[in-house]
DNA sequence: TGCAATTACTTAGATGGCTAAGTATAAGAG
DNA sequence: CTCTTATACTTAGCCATCTAAGTAATTGCA
């Protein structure tokens, strides 16, 4: 197989596997009414030591601000969080999970952890570590603004 | 690092790297007015030995039929393809690239190939081969309807 | 042969991503 | 102190994906 063909296969496998992962996890989370993106938002909010701003959340998730706005709108409608205007800077909204949001996070966290374990347990730990490292390095290369 | 943490890091790296790849390639293709998904559709259509049906294209791309419908609507509006009702089965629309579509494919193919080479050339071929294999295997596991 | 089931495509409406442009507020330069 | 600039969020509008439900045409069984 030519190097060119291999590079094409890799690009396709990266794309398809990421989608298959998201899709399979979304199906698993469907009963809880949350998709992977929503869950990730809630996870970062739950783990933060203090209420985050929307911009901080956008950085954590590596998405743009309007994406966060829409996501929070949905989660707020679902009663899982609320926004509070910062006391010292009226431009800033701090995002807080509601008790219901905290509860949902606990359940979803377990489901996601089980899912990862179930899908990855067959893989050798060293292989997984190596692949993770290569992907992280590739990600940095891709985000390099030079290209 | 615990195995659990490693699995979490892998899941995140898979998701983020796939998005970074798509994003970087989309930026590169923007001058040509095509996103990665559009380009992939055109590539399959260009390489097919005979005009494909929309269902066949959906299978190639591993997406659902409505996704293909929307994609083809856009590409048709852009003048890159047309649909023709099959002579023997009036339910079927065969998709044909226009001369302009064929031209665009030739350009985009070169850009995508250069992009892949540029981003992956630093990686050892054997490592790339191994990762591709693991991702493909994982994808099959994820698509397994059992879970 | 005729109607039920299947198949191919479309429409409707949701999620999740983007860019570009708008609004409100704070910070800083002069 | 004022006016420009920068920051935080929102809105508007697009692309890509999904599921569910609808339409048109064919297949196939009784």
Automatic annotation (TrEMBL), chains A, B:
Q: What InterPro entries does UniProt report for this protein, alphabetically?
A: HTH_MarR-typ, MarR/SlyA-like, WH-like_DNA-bd_sf, WH_DNA-bd_sf
UniProtKB keywords = DNA-binding, Transcription, Transcription regulation
- Looking at the UniProt entry, the stretches that span the membrane are none
A Pfam family of the record is: MarR_2
Name under which the protein is recorded = MarR family transcriptional regulator
Leader sequence segment: none
Which Gene3D superfamilies does the UniProt entry name for this protein? Winged helix-like DNA-binding domain superfamily/Winged helix DNA-binding domain
> Does this entry carry the keyword Glycoprotein?
no
């Amino acid at each position: 197989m030519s190097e060119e063909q291999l590079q094409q296969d890799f690009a396709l496998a990266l794309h398809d596997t990421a989608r298959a992962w998201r899709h399979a996890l979304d199906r698993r989370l469907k009963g809880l009414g949350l998709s992977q993106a929503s869950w990730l938002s809630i996870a970062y909010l739950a783990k933060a030591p203090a209420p985050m701003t929307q911009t901080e959340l956008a950085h954590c998730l590596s998405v743009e601000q309007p994406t966060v706005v829409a996501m929070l709108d949905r989660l707020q409608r679902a009663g899982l969080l609320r926004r509070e205007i910062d006391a010292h800077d009226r431009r800033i909204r701090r995002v807080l999970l509601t008790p219901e949001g905290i509860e949902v996070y606990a359940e979803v966290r377990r489901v996601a952890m089980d899912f990862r374990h179930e899908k990855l347990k067959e893989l050798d730990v060293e292989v997984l570590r190596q692949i993770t490292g290569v992907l992280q390095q590739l990600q940095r290369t891709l985000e390099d603004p030079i290209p």
